[in-house]
Design a protein that fits this description.
The chain is α+β, with helices and mostly antiparallel strands. Helix content is 31%, strand content 37%. It has four helices and five strands. It has a five-stranded mixed β-sheet. The termini are far apart. The model has no long low-confidence stretch (mean pLDDT 89).
């Protein structure tokens, strides 16, 4: 099940982006589902709104992966020559099920966790 989820996540990310932006995928089993953490590389010139749009597009695809309990997207970009986590967005399965009912602008309020680094925007 873990391998299948990893393959599906990789396929979703590669389908959404022209370049390979995936840094890592972590999968933690939780009962009969899994918590998934996807680490992604962002350009140093991206704004919060762009990352929200990209996250939204990924979440719309990820919602169809039934094995997911929680999904966390971690965006990293270079800040003073260090790879820095600049945005973290987590959706539990209930919040993820409502993704089609919201806009990308609603992600900060609709997510179960939203952490923005001071260097973003």
């Amino acid at each position: 099940m873990k391998t299948n989820t990893m393959l599906m996540m990789t396929e979703i990310v590669l389908k959404q982006f022209v370049e390979n932006i995936m840094l890592n995928i972590e999968i933690v089993p939780v009962e009969d589902k899994q918590n998934v953490i996807v680490s992604l590389r962002a350009s140093e010139f991206l704004k919060e709104s762009t990352l929200l749009k990209d996250s939204y597009n990924l979440l719309k695809e990820i919602q169809h992966v039934e094995e997911i309990n929680d999904i966390t997207l971690k965006w990293f970009m270079p800040v003073k020559n260090n790879n820095t986590e600049i945005l973290t967005v987590t959706f539990d399965d209930e919040a993820l099920a409502t993704i089609n009912e919201i806009s990308y602008k609603d992600i900060p309020q609709a997510s179960t966790q939203y952490i923005k680094h001071k260097h973003l925007d």
